[in-house]
Specification:
Distance between the termini: 97 Å
Number of helices: 3
Oligomer: single chain
Radius of gyration: 27 Å
Order of helices and strands: HHH
């Protein structure tokens, strides 16, 4: 009888250990997701600030054209320069986010892998857009 009781007690202890480990894993996964979400939120706030500045500057250019303080050609040239500058700022934000993600010590491998993949894709997209904006600006300056 004693062996059966001790086996039952050992099984209960093992179950409790598994339950604690499972709960710990769930907590770590939740923490990892929260950290990534906080970094994403910070990145998104920075991007909104850049976009708001971009929109304001574009509005100033359009207003200057409407009030005949500037020609359409001048506004277009400045607009292209603004596009390139804004694209570079976006790229810097995405690179910062990518570096933050890469430096994280997450316990959830798949979650970190997905965050890294998303960050890398965002950097590639932002880099392409920045390069395209700079190229368009350079072509325009050669024409003028």
């Amino acid at each position: 009888m004693k062996k059966a009781g001790s086996k039952k007690m050992q099984a209960e202890i093992n179950k409790q250990i598994v339950d604690v480990q499972t709960k710990q894993l769930e907590i770590e996964q939740k923490r990892d997701k929260e950290v990534i979400a906080a970094l994403q939120d910070n990145r998104d706030k920075q991007l909104r600030i850049v976009e708001n500045g971009y929109t304001q500057q574009k509005t100033v250019l359009e207003k200057a054209v409407a009030e005949q303080k500037m020609t359409r050609e001048q506004a277009d040239a400045l607009s292209l320069s603004l596009d390139a500058e804004t694209a570079e700022k976006r790229l810097d934000i995405y690179l910062g986010y990518q570096n933050d993600i890469l430096s994280l010590e997450l316990n959830n491998g798949p979650e970190k892998a997905k965050a890294i993949e998303d960050a890398n894709k965002a950097v590639l997209d932002a880099d392409l857009k920045a390069s395209q904006s700079v190229l368009i600006s350079k072509k325009l300056y050669r024409i003028c």
